[in-house]
Amino acid sequence: MWLPAAALCTTLLVALAPLGVGGQEAEPQDEEPTGLVWTNTTDLSWVSTGGNASSSTLGLSTVFLGKNALNELRFEGGGIRSETRITTTTAVGTSPDDFELVEEKRTELTAENFFARGRYDRTLGTVLAFGGAGWDRNTFAGIDNRYNAVAGVGRAFVDADDARFKADLGVTYTLQKDLVPTPGVSESFGGLRLSYDAMKKLSSTTEFASLLLLDQNLNETTDLRADWLNSLAVSMSETLAFRTSLQLLFDNLPSLLSVPLRLPDGTPQDATVTVPAKKWDSIFTVSLVITM
């Protein structure tokens, strides 16, 4: 199944290549490298509701990027956590005219997704070599801890101030610990990753970015995973911007979830069953971006 996936990603690369129109094709760097110049970009989003229905959602991600003529070092991490506060109101009394209200409050975690990763790129003539590692957790998708390492080669087809288009191919090693282990499926496996990283300035204050990762498990060919992030950022100043982004996560062989068993009349049973999680997850965020 990884061959059709590679073909699909190649088609997307060709389709998105026009994003580089107006930029300059990347050329080999002959200048001597100096120390890395570091920048930091942090996205922060917070939503809170109160009253009859109460909930809160916190989203945070940060990227530290160090660059010079030949090297690029990138560290990033973040996550999303959402809680809902549920209030159950009961009338306790002897009649409709003689009662008092009793409120029972509880907090329920409704979403949780965290990640951390790093990557090093080294320019070698017209190509680049890279290596990286990462960790992520998505308990609502059944993933307790997932560690991965990747190494490969790529090329920056366009690398300018107003446009960027990079593509790369790498081999991966993944160790995945699920909340509910899948019988007969190995927790560790090798894979093949195909990706692109594109950016285009639509105006002096507006920037569109797109990042796609396709990761194919070579031990189990039905296990294809994708991470596609598209964002639109509007600058308010040199350091502040608003960003709207949509991230789509796909897992063709999702992890298992344990769910409680009930009788048809709703009576709970002292038993659970395992079912596969959904193949698709989506994360839509509107955030404030701080660049330093």
Which features characterize this protein?
69% strand, flat, two-stranded antiparallel ribbon
Structure description:
The chain is mainly beta. It has one helix and 14 strands, in the order αββββββββββββββ. The protein has one helix at residues 2-16; strands at 37-49, 54-67, 71-95, 98-124, 127-138, 143-159, 163-178, 188-201, 206-217, 224-235, 240-251, 256-262, 268-276, 280-291. It has a twelve-stranded antiparallel beta barrel. A hairpin with a 6-residue loop joins strand 9 (206-217) and strand 10. Mean pLDDT is 88; it is low at 1-23.
Query: What class do helices, strands and sheet pairing give?
Result: mainly beta
Biggest sheet, open or closed, and with what strands and sense? 12 strands, antiparallel, barrel
Shape: flat
Q: What is the count of helical runs?
A: 1
User: What portion of residues is helical?
Assistant: under 10%
- Unreliable stretches, pLDDT < 50, 5 or more residues? 1-23
Give me the side-by-side strand order of the main sheet: 1-2-3-4-5-6-7-8-9-10-11-14
SSE order in H/E notation?
A: HEEEEEEEEEEEEEE
For the CA atoms, what is the radius of gyration?
A: 23 Å
Distance between the termini: 43 Å
Q: On the 0-100 scale, what is the average pLDDT?
A: 88
Q: What is the total tally of β strands?
A: 14
Strand coverage percent: over 45%
